[in-house]
Design brief:
seven-stranded parallel sheet, two-stranded antiparallel sheet, about 55% helix, globular
């Protein structure tokens, strides 16, 4: 190793002070009657530098030597590769064993349901609580002994939901009117509410039309409500959950996130986005914050409530599901800490199976179990 050293004794000693053995060297020279000469210092520095770089240099030289020999690899590199492959294969075996275990566990839980956690006394925030699925979720939470904050932009309807809840159990629910697409209103909501234990992002809007017929305003509004609001509410309430060491974040997506259908491209895209968001949060939390749980609901087409406006008509060989049924699945999934909940349950496995089939085969089965969606707005002469 080439080192240029000034003959000045002080410079040499400063340079040598960078050595790991400086303390030993200092003690050695203090015990001498005279200071070492620059030549002695230079020799000592070079010895130290060579000692530190010896292993690295030998390894680099060895690699260079074997790289010149066609088809030869250094023994150390071979050893490293063997260790890496051994570790990888052991992890694969471990993964296979765990996979079999979890599959058997899922099957066993169908026969012997696991113990569910209690939601008694938990403060639950439900968005989109004015009607339909959001209202039914609130009513089911009353039976679980929760405190409910029902949020919606439709004041009369959300007040009606809260009145229904309080009729079942007095003073268990409160109504709040906020636009969850507005970050400033969400900040105000955080200030107004008690700490939230369970956040249920249920608010959503729908529209059906072909990609060229749907309006830009409709697309933007769907993404603001169905997707972006999830980001804003999660970012607002998650810090408190982490600080308290507990929390559960839930989202209403759709079975559309596992498949595709015509005339609902923007809506389906929002549900794919929500599904991706929740799965990524699961990956973040299972390592950094395992105390924060994630649940995503994927219902099939829900029969609209009498009080809800119709935005599409669905003609399908598979039956619709009800809001009550979907709400029960949601709450049961929270109590079991399920990551993915599909309504009905078997639909998840059927839709996953279609993904494994060749594209023409999957399209054939979608034609057999069709789900044709038509726009109500278009039929009424309105822009979707």
């Amino acid at each position: 190793m080439d080192i240029n050293i000034n003959n000045d004794l002080l410079s040499i000693m400063m340079l040598y002070s960078l050595s790991p053995s400086y303390e030993n060297f200092r003690v050695a020279i203090e015990s001498r009657d005279t200071l070492p000469t620059p030549t002695e210092l230079k020799v000592k520095i070079l010895e130290e530098a060579d000692a530190r770089g010896n292993d690295e240099s030998r390894s680099a030289n060895e690699e260079a030597f074997y790289s010149k020999k066609q088809g030869m690899t250094s023994p150390k590199r071979v050893e490293r590769e063997i260790i890496d492959w051994t570790r990888f294969l052991s992890e694969v075996v471990y993964g296979v064993v765990l996979t079999v275990f979890y599959i058997l566990k899922e099957i066993l839980e169908l026969v012997i349901p696991p113990k569910q956690k209690s939601l008694q006394g938990e403060h639950v925030l439900v968005t989109g609580a004015a009607r339909g699925l959001g209202r039914e979720i609130c009513l089911r939470l009353v039976k679980e002994g929760c405190r409910i904050s029902a949020v919606d932009v439709l004041q009369d309807k959300v007040v009606e939901t809260v009145a229904m809840c309080n009729a079942l159990r007095p003073n268990c629910a409160a109504a709040y009117v906020y636009d969850i697409t507005d970050k400033k209103q969400i900040e105000a909501m955080v200030s107004d509410l008690d700490p939230v234990d369970i956040l249920i992002n249920n608010a959503g809007i729908v529209s059906s039309a072909s990609i060229l017929e749907v309006s830009e305003q409709s697309i933007q509004r769907m993404f603001d409500v169905n997707v972006m609001s999830h980001f804003w509410t999660i970012r607002a309430f998650l810090p408190g959950m982490i600080e308290r060491g507990k929390g559960h974040i839930c989202a209403t997506a759709s079975a559309a996130a596992f498949t595709q259908a015509e005339n609902i491209a923007p809506y389906t895209a929002t549900k794919y986005a929500v599904t991706g968001l929740m799965l990524c949060l699961r990956e973040e939390f299972r390592r950094a914050h395992p105390e924060i749980k994630i649940t995503t609901l994927h219902p099939f087409f829900i029969t609209p409530a009498a009080s809800s406006p119709e935005h599409w008509t669905v003609n399908s060989r598979l039956p619709d599901v009800t809001a009550v049924q979907s709400a029960n699945f949601m709450i049961d999934g929270i109590k079991k800490e399920k990551v993915t909940v599909t309504v009905p349950t078997h639909l998840y496995y059927l839709l996953q199976l279609l993904r494994w089939l060749p594209t023409p085969a999957g399209e054939t089965w979608r034609d057999i179990f069709y789900a044709k969606i038509d726009s109500i707005e278009k039929k009424n002469g309105k822009t979707p």
